[in-house]
Design brief:
The chain has 238 residues and is α+β, with helices and mostly antiparallel strands. It contains 8 helices and 7 strands. Strands 6-5-4-3-7 form a 5-stranded antiparallel beta sheet. The protein has a two-stranded antiparallel ribbon with strand order 1-2.
Length: 238
């Protein structure tokens, strides 16, 4: 392993540690001597890496350092590229642009071996879906409400075109092969529901945040729905 690769690997290892780790453990994991490790730590610290160390306790990488994905191997590269291409196929315009931007940034920092995996991957996404129904409400409205934890008032029509008005707590957007859905707590049903976005004719924030943490509500929803590994969703039929 080259010296540059060793330094980057050391940073990656430290980044994955939530607690201080001893020099002996780090040296063993990197298969180098402790003397080399001390020298590498000193060099990284001199370059500005926020590494904190204390005798008898170990080293920890403090927050504040962003590590670009320089050390991806061929399999990791292909996994990321496959995921981003799925996003490009199934996401909306915002996510499609984000996926293209992320791929360009990754391509700019990959080493030559990983560049080859990027240009000629051994795995490819399947054909695009059949297209999504047109949405009356832009997905950005839902996306922003989710980020703000804002209650949404929606006009919804079920599979039988029966209209209803709902006050929901939007938790996440789901991108299926043929439809897009929003996962939410529905105040009308006093239960978690999923709503097809193409069946929502209007949506407006109520100027009120819903209680609790979105992450906790999502965790409860996952447990309640007992999602299988494929993460299937059932659009609301009530």
């Amino acid at each position: 392993m080259s010296r540059t690769s060793r330094l980057l690997t050391l940073l990656q290892v430290l980044r994955g540690k939530s607690r201080p780790v001893t020099a002996a453990t780090l040296a063993s994991e990197l298969e180098i001597s402790e003397r080399t490790l001390y020298r590498d730590i000193a060099e990284l610290t001199a370059l500005g890496a926020p590494i904190f160390g204390e005798a008898g306790i170990g080293y920890v990488l403090r927050s504040g350092l962003f590590l670009p994905p320089l050390m991806l191997n061929a399999d990791e590269t292909e996994a990321i590229v496959l995921g981003l291409r799925y996003v490009d196929q199934r996401g909306d315009e915002v996510l499609g642009k984000a996926a293209a931007g992320a791929l360009a940034k990754i391509a700019a920092v990959l080493d030559p071996a990983a560049q080859e995996a990027l240009r000629n991957p051994t795995v490819l996404p399947g054909p695009p879906g059949y297209g999504y129904p047109q949405n009356a409400v832009p997905l950005n409205v839902f996306r922003q409400a989710i980020r703000d934890q804002a209650k949404l008032h929606i006009d919804y029509a079920d599979a039988n075109q029966v209209p209803s008005q709902r006050l929901i707590w939007p938790l996440a957007l789901g991108f299926l092969n043929e439809v897009r859905i929003i996962v939410a707590w529905c105040e009308l049903r006093s239960a978690y529901r999923t709503f097809r976005t193409d069946r929502i004719s209007a949506a407006s924030e109520q100027g009120e945040r819903y209680p609790g943490r979105r992450s906790d509500l999502l965790r409860t929803w996952r447990k309640q729905m007992q999602l299988d590994e494929a993460g299937r969703f059932t659009p609301d039929k009530n």
